[in-house]
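Q: I have three molecules that I believe assemble together. Could you output C-alpha cells for the complex as a whole instead of separate predictions?
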Amino acid sequence: MQGFLAMGGHGGYIWPAFALTALVLIGFAVASLRDLRRAQKTLARQEALRPERRRRKAAQA
Amino acid sequence: MTMHRFANPGRFMRFADRALPWTLGAMVLCLGAGLYLGLFVAPPDYQQGESVRIMYVHVPSAWMALFVYTNIALASAASLIWRHPLADLVAKASSPIGAGFTFLALATGSLWGKPMWGTWWVWDARLTSVLVLFFLYLGHMALMNAFDDQARGRKAAAILALVGFVNVPIIKFSVDWWNTLHQPASVLRLDGPTIHSSMLWPLLLMALGFTFYYVTLLFIRVKSDLLAARARALEVAALQAGE
Amino acid sequence: MNAFLAVIGRDLRLALRQRSDVALVVMFFVLTGAMFPLAVGPEPNLLARIAPGVTAVAALLAVLLSLERLFLADYEDGNLELLALAALPLELVALAKVAAHWLTTGLPLVIAAPVIALLYDMPADGLAVTLLALALATPSLSLIGAVGAALTLGARRGGVLIPLLVLPLYVPILIFAVSAIDAELAGLTALPNLLLLAAILAFALPFTPIAAAAALRQALT
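A: Yes, here they are, computed for all three components at once.
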C-alpha cells in the first residue's frame, strides 16, 4: 500500500493531479445540480401561484 | 421575444430526462474502468516512471478542452444561422465546463512537468496553446456575462466563439512555430515513447468518461436554464396581468 | 466607392480634430518601449535580444488602447444607426472605419518605430524588417480589434473586456512579427514570417468586416 501511494517517489504529483481533477469535476456537477434544484423550486412556486391567480381574476370579474 | 421561445421546452426536457440515466451510467463505467486500468494495471513509463500516470487525466482533459470548444463553435453557428434557441443555451452551458477542462489540462500538465523538467511551468508548444485556449474560454464567458440583456450577451458570445474557433488552428500553428524556433537543447516529449495498448485503453476510457460527464452536465445545465426561463416567463405574464 | 471613402474621410477629419489622440498612441508606444531598459537594465546584449519583442508588444498594446473608441462615438450619438441604414453595406462601413483607424494608429506606430530601434540600438537591417513587419501586422491588429470593439459595444466594462477578447487572437501576429525581426537580426531570411503576416492580413481583410458588421447589427437591435 505504501509503495502504491508513494508511486515511485512521484506520489506528491500524481495524487494531487487526480484529486484536483476529481475536485473540479465534482464541484461543477454539484453546482449544476444545485442550480437545477433552485430552478425547479422557482418554477414550482410560479406554477402553484397560477391557479390561485386565475381564481382571483375570476372572482374580480 | 425571448419569453415565449422557451415557454415550451418540452421535447428537449423529455429527451434529457430519458437520456440522463444512460449518460450517467456510461460515465461511471468508463471513468471507473479507466481509473482502474490507469492507476493499477498500466505499467510505469521506461523514462518517466510513475508520473506518466498523470497523462490519464491530462491528455483527456486537453482533448475535452478542444472538443467542447468545437461544440461551442457548432452551437454558435446554429444560433447565428438558424437562430435555434437551444443552441444559445448549449453554448452557454458548455463554456464553463470547457474552461474547467482547460484549467485541468494546464494544472495537471504543470504537475506532470515538475517531476519531468524540474519546473512548474514550461513554455512548450502544447501547454502554451492550451493557455491561449484558456483565455479564449475566459473571454467567451466574460462577454456572455457582460450585458444586462442576456440574449445580447449570448449572441455576441456566439460571434466571438466562431472567430476564436477559426483562429485555434492558426494559434496552434504559430505557437508550434515559435516553439521550434526557440527549441531548448533537450527535446520535450510530453507523451513519452509510442503509446502501448496497455496505456491506450485507460486513455481512451478516461476520454470517453469525460465526454459522458460533459453530456450529462450539459443536459442538467440546459434543463436548468429552460426551467428558469419558464419561471421567468410565468412571472412576467403575471406582472403584465396586473397583480 | 464614394460612400466608402466618405466614411474614411469623416473619421480622419474627426481624428485630426483631436490630434492629441494620435499623439497619445505614439507617446504610449515610445514610453512603453522606454520602460523595459529601466526595468531590465541597460546591458546592450540583453536589450538587443528583447528589442523586437518589446517593439511588437508595445505596438500591440498601443493599438489595444485605441480600440474602444473605434465605434463608440458613433454608437453613442446615433450615427452608427444611420450608417447601418445607409446604402453602403455595414461590412464596408466597418472596413472603412478600420482603414481610418489604421491610418491614425498603425501608421503612426510604424513611423515611430525607429525611435524604439534607436533606444535599443537596433542595427539598420533589423529596423527595415521591423518597419515592414509592423506595416503588415498593424492592419491585422486593427481588423481583429474592430471585431472585439464591435462585440463589446454597450457592454459593462467594455474597455477592460476588449483586451481579454482580442489578445489571444493577436498571438499569431505577435509571434510572426517578432520572429521576422529575429530572423533578420540572426542573419537568416525574414521572408517566411513576413509572408505569414501577409497571409493573416489577406485572411482577415475579407472576414473580419463580416464578423464586425454582425456584431454591430446586434448592438443596434
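A: One point stands out. The mean pLDDT of chain C is 93.
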